[in-house]
């Protein structure tokens, strides 16, 4: 049975989700016209807003009925996510994101760096208003780890010695940590600390699965379906799981080609590397790992009481996996 | 009588200042080697650490005797300052700061953007540990305003219509606001809220004077004394007070040359513009404004009880002004 996003995932929090936009718009309000214009541009370029939806669903799954505070938290999560995207686009020198021109392309790197800084600061400012020291500590530590994950990714670029463990550390920081904050934060605000750990485990494994799937798609998808080109990561010499796994599944010349392509990046031998990744069994291993992470995420959810919202989190996890099935 | 930095300014807080470095080094500790290497590089490239010194002096001027918490706050201030410098150097494409290669030049823009993000997040993380909601709100709002000031500066680049008021808004955000946080934060942590306002006024005017003086030096100094070249701001089309004032002090062809040089930037007619700025009376006006801001800063200090630390803040303010005397 196909999962329908609106009906099977969004439904339990549809009105809260709609109301969240008000908080995002308030959040990006500024006396400085350029700040607002850029913030508006990047916030509107957002995707399905998976992180805030997950935050709202987690709140309901914790038994919260009034989500007023959680709506603010969801808006904060989306602003933090947007800030990291804006800086990522500067870092990756990207011109397009989801088919729209990026902030650095529409304005320039300077503007993108500084508006990203504004969004981080404003997110913290709104977080302080929620007046919860435990929540603040969780987020201030979490955002450090997100930045560290991003730098670890840079540090590992062009390094064929990168291990699967280092890869997991990278994706935990750059992807899973914010999912964790979204759901663990919901438990904190709901006054149900007993659900913090199961929700963190759920979100951490969900994030890992989500990123592994993204990295698989970099070797299998086409530009039209994903808005990114096949081999983008390879071009940048990013040792993602498909390449790490390809190194483990090959020997001799093929092994050397993959190693060299991580070390040098670029389009040199691009097609050959993609073929090796696709035919060596590397992608099968990646799919297996994505499924394991998905199963671990679903298992963690079982520690929450049964509810419509928990089912929706279940459905969202399966929908994410379906992208490679 | 010449003011001696160590004896007349640093002395009352010398041991606290030395101890602060421990907190900075703890603050930049990270599991990710590249994060630590870059953080260490940029923190060590720091100047006289005027902001943390001002924080510590303000704490003593408020009557605090045990500065354990203030040392942490001073370290946080310096980390925030360092983070803005790292991002500024990316924004300005600077290769050198105080004669040392910048982070973006030593590594690359990507690394500089992400390590700057780390330093902002870590500063907030340490701030949360100080466990004071009033302090947190002051800082979270303040860092938004700092980012807004920086974007306003970008927005005003190449705009010859920029008014003195807009200039003041820019320098309040990009420079004075952090001085305000340093001293107002000290009053909050000292449990002397009655000194928040006088210290904020002091620091705000001090920061304005400091930045106006910096902007004057861009038209009068040479590279050897300041580590920056004459005309740097002009090259970038930044409408600082010397240019805004030059527009008000000139007519006809000279006026048009200054207008055009703001609009286009670059070295076109560089020498001519510098000559107009120097001979039109613009710099006299700027010096007058710097002195007014200095006097306002000193007047605000009078609202604090007399002490060795207050005298040191007094001396620091006069030392800053001496740069153009």
Automatic annotation (TrEMBL), chains A, B:
Top-level taxon of the source organism: Bacteria
InterPro entries, per the entry: Isoprenoid_synthase_dom_sf, Polyprenyl_synt, Polyprenyl_synt_CS
Keyword annotations from UniProtKB, A to Z: Magnesium, Metal-binding, Transferase
Keyword Magnesium on entry: yes
Record has Lipid metabolism as a keyword: no
PROSITE patterns cross-referenced by the UniProt entry: POLYPRENYL_SYNTHASE_1, POLYPRENYL_SYNTHASE_2
Enzyme class: transferase
Cofactor or coenzyme needed: Mg(2+)
SUPFAM superfamilies listed in its UniProt record: Terpenoid synthases
Molecular function GO labels: all-trans-octaprenyl-diphosphate synthase activity
The protein's Enzyme Commission number: 2.5.1.90
Family statement: Belongs to the FPP/GGPP synthase family.
PANTHER family: ALL TRANS-POLYPRENYL-DIPHOSPHATE SYNTHASE PDSS1, GERANYLGERANYL PYROPHOSPHATE SYNTHASE
Name of protein: Octaprenyl-diphosphate synthase
Organism of provenance: Acinetobacter baylyi
């Amino acid at each position: 049975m196909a999962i329908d996003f609106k009906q099977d995932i969004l439904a339990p929090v549809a009105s809260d989700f709609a109301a969240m936009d008000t908080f995002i718009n308030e959040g990006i309000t500024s006396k400085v016209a350029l700040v607002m214009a850029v913030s508006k541009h990047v916030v509107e370029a957002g995707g399905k807003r998976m992180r805030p939806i997950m935050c709202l669903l987690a709140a309901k799954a914790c038994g919260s009925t009034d989500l007023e505070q959680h709506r603010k938290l969801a808006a904060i999560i989306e602003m933090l996510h947007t800030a990291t995207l804006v800086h990522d686009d500067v870092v990756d020198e990207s011109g397009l994101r989801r088919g729209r021109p990026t902030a650095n392309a529409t304005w320039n790197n300077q503007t993108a760096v500084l508006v990203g800084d504004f969004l981080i600061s404003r997110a913290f400012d709104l977080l302080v208003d929620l007046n919860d020291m435990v929540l603040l500590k969780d987020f201030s530590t979490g955002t450090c780890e997100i930045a560290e994950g991003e730098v670890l990714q840079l540090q590992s670029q062009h390094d064929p010695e990168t291990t699967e463990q280092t890869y997991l550390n990278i994706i935990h920081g750059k992807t899973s940590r914010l999912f964790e904050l979204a759901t663990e934060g919901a438990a904190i605000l709901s006054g149900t600390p007993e659900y913090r750990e199961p929700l963190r485990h759920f979100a951490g494994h969900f994030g890992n699965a989500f990123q592994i799937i993204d990295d698989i798609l970099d070797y299998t998808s086409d530009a039209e379906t994903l808005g990114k080109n096949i081999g983008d990561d390879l071009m940048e010499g990013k040792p993602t799981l498909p390449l790490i796994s390809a190194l483990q599944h090959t020997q001799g010349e093929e092994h050397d080609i993959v190693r060299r392509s991580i070390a040098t990046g670029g389009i040199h031998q691009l097609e050959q590397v993609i073929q090796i990744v696709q035919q060596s069994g590397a992608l099968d291993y990646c799919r297996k790992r994505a499924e394991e992470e998905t199963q671990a995420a679903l298992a963690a959810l079982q520690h929450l009481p049964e509810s419509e919202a928990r089912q929706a989190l279940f459905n969202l996890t399966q929908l994410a996996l379906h992208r490679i099935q």
